[in-house]
């Protein structure tokens, strides 16, 4: 059985360097001087959102977390780092977020695209992104630790 609490507790954060190009793009965007409306599609336990919050600090964020698994979304919703920034937590699929048209400055899909119908999600991203909005999609493989003895 999958345990979202253990997943959140033991999966490491994403490195800040992963978001450096995003920070550069945001500083050049029309959204540079105001709170950033961010949708994390397939947010899981909030690992990507928490990593972005840390990388973009002290920028003000308004987070919209989108996740079809209610237990995973519950873990994300309870993260202390995310709570001050949380706008909505939506138990729905990335293909149909229910977010308003042109309402997000940034859409984030972190290590989740493989669970999604890509053409449908692409259309949804186009629909919810505000003019000049940004999309960051990444698949990051954490270094693996093993307890195998050296030969």
Topology:
Elements: H1 4-10, H2 20-28, E1 36-41, H3 47-56, E2 61-66, H4 70-77, E3 86-90, E4 104-110, H5 118-128, E5 129-138
Parallel strand pairs: 1-2, 1-4, 2-3, 4-5
Task: Note down, in words, how this protein is organized.
The protein has about 150 residues and is an alpha/beta fold. Helices cover about 30% and strands about 25% of the residues. It has helices spanning about 5-10, 20-30, 45-55, 70-75, 120-130, and strands at about 35-40, 60-65, 85-90, 105-110, 130-140. Strands 3-2-1-4-5 form a 5-stranded parallel β-sheet, sandwiched between helices. The termini are far apart. The mean pLDDT is about 90.
Task: Evaluate the radius of gyration.
Answer: 16 Å
Number of strands: 5
In one word, what is the shape? globular
In what range is the share of β-strand residues? Answer: 15-25%
Main β-sheet description? 5 strands, parallel
Pick out its properties.
30% helix; alpha/beta; 5-stranded parallel beta sheet; globular; 151 residues; 5 strands; single chain
Offer a quick outline of the entry.
The chain is of the alpha/beta class and 151 residues long. 30% of the residues lie in helices and 23% in strands. It has a five-stranded parallel beta sheet with strand order 3-2-1-4-5, with helices on both faces.
